[in-house]
Design brief:
about 280 residues, alpha/beta, 8-stranded parallel barrel, 10 strands, Xyl_isomerase-like_TIM-brl, Xylose isomerase-like TIM barrel domain-containing protein, Xyl_isomerase-like_sf
């Protein structure tokens, strides 16, 4: 429920629409966990999205002791692990078993780290939309009870074969389980030709959080500092604020795929200030 503003209470820009800020470790490839935790805390971010890949310090192959150390590092720094960002493709062609095994491993990792979410991709490839939808929904529905038992949510990102809100909503509507939702990657919905006013209503019943970023153009997706590109970040934040949404904004800066891009740590303070300005203006 939306509350009315009290004119006698000074405005706190960090509250805005009560959104919290995170960044993805895709922007700091290979950075040791203690450094990530210190970076997030020092730059004023509430959480991180941990890229779960064998080339990173955190992935499903690490053991119980290392999982406990990772959880402790972030807990001691006062930084939340928002998501374990895995690379399972829910709709990929082939048998279900390897996909379900991968989902299970990511869910266990997230639980052990105290993370609230697991990120998955669609990955429908060359299948028809109907076939890809059914495949992804079947697998996500099969994994949902385990996710619920572990207190972790599976989030299907708007990406690749399902880059728009309408695409993701088709799958999530078939799943129909509260432990399965979505990540709104604002770049992919924009590249898919969908404006925020269309994306949000499609995704809102399932929305876990929003990935923000900026790029120069549809033809040049090299990551830029927030506010220096063409993505409709202002429109997104205004819409989320107007709707009273109180979740997370996570900056996904794709340094891993664009080594020529500027270093993320030097950009984090200004990125935080940019998002807080958008929240203040939208409040």
């Amino acid at each position: 429920m939306k509350g009315k503003k009290n004119p006698h209470v000074p405005h706190d820009p960090t509250k805005g629409a009560r959104m919290k800020l995170a960044f993805s470790t895709l922007g700091v490839p290979g950075m040791p966990v203690p450094d990530v935790a210190r970076l997030a805390a020092g730059a004023g971010y509430h959480g991180v999205e941990l890229r779960a890949h064998p080339e990173e310090p955190v992935h499903p192959g690490i053991g119980a002791d290392e999982r406990a150390r990772v959880a402790a590092e972030f807990r001691d720094a006062g930084v939340e692990i928002l998501t374990v960002a895995g690379y399972v493709r829910a709709a990929q062609a082939g048998p279900d078993e390897p996909v379900l095994t991968g989902l299970g491993e990511l869910l266990e990792l997230a639980h052990d780290l105290g993370a609230r979410n697991v990120r998955v991709f669609p990955g429908g490839g060359e299948q028809s939309p109907e076939e890809a939808d059914a495949t992804a929904a079947r697998r996500l529905a099969a994994a949902a009870p385990r996710a619920a038992d572990l207190g972790v949510r599976l989030l299907l990102e708007t990406h690749d074969s399902h880059r728009t809100g309408a695409d993701a909503a088709r799958v999530l509507g078939l799943v129909g389980h509260g432990s399965v939702g979505t990540i709104w990657d604002v770049m992919h919905t924009w590249l898919g030709g969908e404006d925020p006013a269309t994306s949000y209503p499609a995704l809102s019943p399932y929305l876990g959080y929003v990935q923000v970023k900026d790029i120069a153009s549809a033809d040049d997706t090299t990551p830029l500092p927030l506010g220096e590109g063409v993505l409709p970040l202002t429109e997104c934040v205004e819409l989320l604020s107007r709707e009273g949404w109180d979740g997370w904004l996570c900056w996904e800066y794709e340094k891993r795929w664009y080594p020529q891009a500027r270093e993320l740590p030097e950009l984090l303070p200004a990125g935080r200030e940019h998002l807080l300005r958008l929240l203040t203006d939208a409040a």
